[in-house]
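Margin note: ligand = NAI.
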Amino acid sequence: MSSLVRYRILPWRRSFSQSVRLREIKSISELPNRTLPQYRETNNHGLLSLQWPSPPRNVLLTKKNNTPAITDSLVEYANHIHSTYPSMNLILEPHAAEEVHSQLAFPVFTTTEPASTTSPTTVSDKTDLISTLGGDGTILHASSLFAHTRSVPPILTFGMGTLGFLGEWKFKEYKRAFREVYMSGASDAYASTTSPLTSTSPSPPYPTTPSYSAIRGKAMGKTRNARILFRNRLRVGVFSPTGTRINTPTPTTTGDTYALNEVIVHRGSSPHLKIISVYVNGRFLTEAVADGMIISSPTGSTAYSLSSGGSIVHPLVPSLLLTPICPRSLSFRPLVLPANTPITLRLSEKNRGREVEVSIDGVRISSGVGVGMEVRVLGEEMRDRLSGEWCGGVPSIVRGVVGTEEKEEDHWVGGLNALLKFNYPFGEEA
Amino acid sequence: MSSLVRYRILPWRRSFSQSVRLREIKSISELPNRTLPQYRETNNHGLLSLQWPSPPRNVLLTKKNNTPAITDSLVEYANHIHSTYPSMNLILEPHAAEEVHSQLAFPVFTTTEPASTTSPTTVSDKTDLISTLGGDGTILHASSLFAHTRSVPPILTFGMGTLGFLGEWKFKEYKRAFREVYMSGASDAYASTTSPLTSTSPSPPYPTTPSYSAIRGKAMGKTRNARILFRNRLRVGVFSPTGTRINTPTPTTTGDTYALNEVIVHRGSSPHLKIISVYVNGRFLTEAVADGMIISSPTGSTAYSLSSGGSIVHPLVPSLLLTPICPRSLSFRPLVLPANTPITLRLSEKNRGREVEVSIDGVRISSGVGVGMEVRVLGEEMRDRLSGEWCGGVPSIVRGVVGTEEKEEDHWVGGLNALLKFNYPFGEEA
Amino acid sequence: MSSLVRYRILPWRRSFSQSVRLREIKSISELPNRTLPQYRETNNHGLLSLQWPSPPRNVLLTKKNNTPAITDSLVEYANHIHSTYPSMNLILEPHAAEEVHSQLAFPVFTTTEPASTTSPTTVSDKTDLISTLGGDGTILHASSLFAHTRSVPPILTFGMGTLGFLGEWKFKEYKRAFREVYMSGASDAYASTTSPLTSTSPSPPYPTTPSYSAIRGKAMGKTRNARILFRNRLRVGVFSPTGTRINTPTPTTTGDTYALNEVIVHRGSSPHLKIISVYVNGRFLTEAVADGMIISSPTGSTAYSLSSGGSIVHPLVPSLLLTPICPRSLSFRPLVLPANTPITLRLSEKNRGREVEVSIDGVRISSGVGVGMEVRVLGEEMRDRLSGEWCGGVPSIVRGVVGTEEKEEDHWVGGLNALLKFNYPFGEEA
Amino acid sequence: MSSLVRYRILPWRRSFSQSVRLREIKSISELPNRTLPQYRETNNHGLLSLQWPSPPRNVLLTKKNNTPAITDSLVEYANHIHSTYPSMNLILEPHAAEEVHSQLAFPVFTTTEPASTTSPTTVSDKTDLISTLGGDGTILHASSLFAHTRSVPPILTFGMGTLGFLGEWKFKEYKRAFREVYMSGASDAYASTTSPLTSTSPSPPYPTTPSYSAIRGKAMGKTRNARILFRNRLRVGVFSPTGTRINTPTPTTTGDTYALNEVIVHRGSSPHLKIISVYVNGRFLTEAVADGMIISSPTGSTAYSLSSGGSIVHPLVPSLLLTPICPRSLSFRPLVLPANTPITLRLSEKNRGREVEVSIDGVRISSGVGVGMEVRVLGEEMRDRLSGEWCGGVPSIVRGVVGTEEKEEDHWVGGLNALLKFNYPFGEEA
Ligand SMILES: NC(=O)C1=CN([C@@H]2O[C@H](COP(=O)(O)OP(=O)(O)OC[C@H]3O[C@@H](n4cnc5c(N)ncnc54)[C@H](O)[C@@H]3O)[C@@H](O)[C@H]2O)C=CC1
Ligand SMILES: NC(=O)C1=CN([C@@H]2O[C@H](COP(=O)(O)OP(=O)(O)OC[C@H]3O[C@@H](n4cnc5c(N)ncnc54)[C@H](O)[C@@H]3O)[C@@H](O)[C@H]2O)C=CC1
Ligand SMILES: NC(=O)C1=CN([C@@H]2O[C@H](COP(=O)(O)OP(=O)(O)OC[C@H]3O[C@@H](n4cnc5c(N)ncnc54)[C@H](O)[C@@H]3O)[C@@H](O)[C@H]2O)C=CC1
Ligand SMILES: NC(=O)C1=CN([C@@H]2O[C@H](COP(=O)(O)OP(=O)(O)OC[C@H]3O[C@@H](n4cnc5c(N)ncnc54)[C@H](O)[C@@H]3O)[C@@H](O)[C@H]2O)C=CC1
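Resulting structure:
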């Protein structure tokens, strides 16, 4: 993410003006504003049901880099979306846009500046739906594009051969998966209406609000809605000894960074132990002498925290994990705390050596960190205080649909067994 | 608990009729019915505030057995309650009643049958407040008296020299502690009223409803309410291979048993591994080959589960812990699941040997268990579905009062450090 | 083992006298005395080379019970040995002798009393070589027949479908394996001699000492000797509070019991913690409050100790493992001590409840154990103090032969990967 | 160590020539060559007895830096040695010599170049005995001065308030401790001789070989010898992908580096997992995906390996520990292997990112490391192959003397309890 090629607007404009008007790269500022979905509770063990008020229009596609097979899949996927859902607009990250736009017979949208610097707000202003092609790293990256956004769009993730615990779908399912998400919440009444609006609609550039009634034969039944697993994030603030906020990637971003997995404080390249004071609810809990400390979300419980000896915590347990990394103590057991517990890690002045690593979801904060620094964390609130509406977390689209007769899969339990080899039995293979 | 001396009503009646009318033992059936408190949310990290609609009248005192010093404390405590709060009635367990009633100048109440067999409903029908003198074992025992009761009275616990992680108060604080609980929720208005009702009131044995206005000078201010930590219990059902329920201690009790710490399935005295199938949400999760399995509440996370390698989970994290005991696998990491997840342990037919131990909160289920048996667990619901009122869990009275200026202690964090020696630092003592 | 059918000598005598002289069961007292092999050091990472002074004559075959397929294999194996090595005598345990002798066209030998009670010395007086058909349990059982014998014969183990970490060979290899062991140490010189002694030799039932020179064409070259892994055992003494030795299965056995895996002290069927004092080198080390304690050999490090969180220790590391079972402490890390460290576990008088489990290699000591009891352990000495000869441990015949050109397998490393799924990689199966 | 002030020879020469001849700093090249002690086996659980053929003459004193109180102690200690054992010569590290020589009324010796670069061979050529003032870090540093020396002089360590697990003695014991070491092995016969050689001997500069007979009244009895614990080191070679050796701190040093605690390969400041192939005995064992890997000596088992979940291994168990750091696997349990097992860690080409940390005893190898690199480790041999004499390891002088009547302390067990808080009991402090 940090190595994003800097977006150069001119060449693309040029390609635009030359000939292939359709292969151009446009700015997302031209897109209609974001459509916010709603989430209804179901009696399916904490999963929610996705409800679009009107069909989504802008989908952000992200992919793993430097993997030609995945780039090919992206092109195939983009073509399918464009041809089947012509009113959809595709947003790509700048380097991906540059890489594939010439293979697409229609325009794509991108940020005029690298997504991670000046215009993340823009991406989050325009994106109705996210879809990723890659492993967990790609999902973490997509999530990081919304690291300063309270309300993340629903995310449809395709594992691409690479191991992924967070990924839900196989790429070969992309048609069905996209349709389910697109249609989720569409009422039958509208769907059966036969007004052929599709052809007439696009008095350019884009219809203000498309309607499901325009989508003939695409109804899926009232109850066949996409299932959503809300993944709690952490709200992370990193502060210098003088109290200045450090975790501000761009001049325009302010406030806390949302992390999907975890934030860590670590000795980094220093070969010596770090001394970290831990405060819980504003009170001193303990002084860790260790390689480092992890504050993890339940989602992150199967990532770094697991490697450091933490428990596996289901993503629907509203909690924070405090897991030490190689503590110089026999009695530092990992803790699981309520999600609304404020936790602070303070890099004690006792440390010799100034160096320290602070990383959020595997991305290192490169400057400003040092002795006296504080990392302050709180689980994000999942509902709006006033309306009670769901508005936090990363709404992850889970395989299977609400109310379906077919045996629903439980991705999380499945992942424990298939990916993490949980309680893998002793004995020789058959 | 299982060895409770069988209550003989006759001798007590006799002692009654003889002379010392006040030292008699009466049946709890004579007591007024239970007063149910309410619990209000506070902004104190998940703690609630206790609100009596009218002063509590019946307090159940339990104590550790075979410890003379604690028996003495019980007598002192009982005398204090009786003299300071004359409208309070004291309930004791049969063996304790028999042991101490001759040292008390007033009647005590007890169940006419051992609390754990035919009349637990009676105890729970009459008890407004529980108070324990002893360690964690005493609290577990007191809780077991309400193991078939949905709504447990608030519990005020005194550690008595013995190590206790669940205990909150030191015995020397008993006057202040009892007063805080007794007064909790009393409004200033009433308290300032000076009608001297105390003396006149008790004509028919017990006043229907005492009033705080009768308690001169005892007001504590509207906000100085006792703080409550709701400890989630497990709902445990044990079923024979034919589906018959086994966990029914008495003919009159039905339904699930509530556990405060955990339920375990264990090889017991058989020197061989057990094979236990684990189902989560109705689906097969894994087959444990192990000494046993623990399903624990967050409260139990510092008990057996901790010894077996489980994480420490704060009692306010709504969750269940699934922790293996000595699993024959390198990859069976403890799991933390949402509190509303149904979990089943099934003792596989593959087991050689019939013997197995099933224990709830350290008390073994002595008969009926064996191969094919199932243990079904669910976290209890904490609120009534209709009213939304708090009604599950064990309402534990936490040290410190709501809204006090003085620095509140956090018992849980304190206990980690002081009792569990959490992250105890290396190095020689000063 | 405890359920061995009591051997009745009469029926067998009867079957003898009746007709099928060859299918009779004879007493091992008729057998020539044991031939003791020597062990030479090799430069193969601690493995030794087996050297018979003259061919072995008496082989003890043990098998897993109640498994017809294994019984069939035993018959096949016995027939092969008898026909290919006619001077070999087969010893079976009483119940196995009774079960299979009618299927064999030659006599078998057995103890006149159950092997585990009065005559283990006899078995160890006569056995040149042990061979087991079954899993680790079968090997542990065979080893227990020599639990009071300083010098255990070499043991050739065949896994039989059941998972076995200690087992070395697959049954289909039995011809090659047995030949390697039988010939191990035979010199080429003798082997090339062509004196046809085989036919003439057996006039008095058994030749005093057979010679390799009699075995035409069976030479394997000087260096193709069977490789031996010496598995250290524990010397275990269990003493009552009055100092009486408890671990004496029969009146005739005295002294320590040798354990291959471990000895454990455990709460057994009591649902309460045990308090166990641990002494190392005669000094107090710590007081364990736990389900129990394990003292394990390196061989046992992959058994119960592993399940309890112990490290995996290679069988050639001369050491003892002290591993707690579910200790009520955050800071009780498993210890690895030098093999010659005396360790004592003492069941403290502080324990409430009298019950306790003491088990050696998975077999419970059924009587005499209780509060005040001591378990005293020391790693056995592996060499004779005077001669320096190897004489302790269980000499396990390892797959592959010394000096072979073919890539030798390392059974231990192989077992970690294939059986224990050591560091099993994350990710979906191909 | 890396920050040693570069030794400037000129100023010191100058101070020499100016006036205070006695406070000068001399080159160790002027010292007599090293006296090699012998080690005799005792029946004290693996400890050896130190035997000087003639009194030691050259003692290397090292101390913790930047700690004035320790510098003062060094001066006191040096003065004591000089006045009580006038034939002893004191060697200091250059920066310490510069710091304290003006406070001493006699010359000290030092290397003409920083000890760690060109002249470690010189230090090891001259040092009879090492003595350290500081914590474990100071001992590790002293040991590193002999990291290319097969035969390390005995080391007498004083903890200085700082926590130290390797340290043996308290500073207030320095007189008795030094005397015990100095006299160790002196025979009574000589000691009782009264030839007053001390005064006549020093035909300057230094007597070729002093004799215990010269030390009147200092005999301690034949058996009161200093006890030695031999701490096994690791032989570590670090090789670039092309096979070039990297671990050569100076042009003049060659061959393996001896490590007292461990060698680690670690992700360092890269926030991503490392992929490390592990070979044991030349065969592939496993591919670690982890923060890193530790290969530790038993001495190091209480250092980094402990923090990473390794077992505690007694220093006399001849073994190597293979402990992963935060492995991305549920089933990577630490391994304990025989000391003579060759282990190789190979930094796989699969790694993305080039950065990696390789550290030996907490000192980072700063250059040349990267993908394709190999770390090859073997436990050092503890005895000379020909003579059978002890010649490897770090001979650490253990508190208490051989054969003393007084209760001997077991430092290791003591350290577990006092320093590591091993199995620290639950419950409130008295
Ligand atoms: N997470 C961890 O536990 C880490 C441990 N280390 C250890 O630190 C050592 C280097 O020491 P310093 O330069 O002083 O670094 P440091 O300042 O990071 O302190 C290391 C700590 O380990 C202790 N220690 C060292 N060797 C020990 C031993 N054999 N047994 C018990 N405790 C021991 C020291 O007393 C000190 O408390 C390395 O050899 C490595 O073992 C280094 C980095 C991280
Ligand atoms: N190996 C182990 O750790 C074992 C633990 N237990 C625990 O003992 C409990 C029964 O208690 P007792 O009848 O007194 O048996 P006990 O006499 O075996 O003592 C159990 C110990 O656990 C402590 N304890 C109980 N509940 C706790 C909690 N929630 N948090 C922290 N510490 C707690 C008690 O203070 C006491 O020290 C069971 O519910 C089970 O959790 C029972 C057997 C073995
Ligand atoms: N929770 C646990 O892990 C328990 C383990 N055991 C172990 O079982 C042994 C007795 O065996 P069985 O009578 O067959 O009992 P069992 O039927 O309980 O099976 C024990 C299991 O351990 C395996 N095993 C035995 N020794 C082993 C070794 N040295 N390395 C690796 N795996 C080994 C066997 O293959 C079998 O899978 C005991 O010596 C003890 O080590 C016994 C009770 C509980
Ligand atoms: N020793 C360890 O276990 C380390 C773990 N990490 C983890 O890596 C993450 C960053 O990922 P990358 O940039 O791809 O780094 P990476 O290339 O180091 O790979 C991290 C691995 O973790 C997996 N992963 C990520 N999130 C996961 C989750 N929530 N549950 C299960 N598996 C998950 C990925 O599939 C990948 O295999 C960090 O958030 C941190 O959790 C980072 C450093 C060390």
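The interface with chain B takes residues 163, 329-333, 418-421, 424-429 of chain D (CB under 8 Å).
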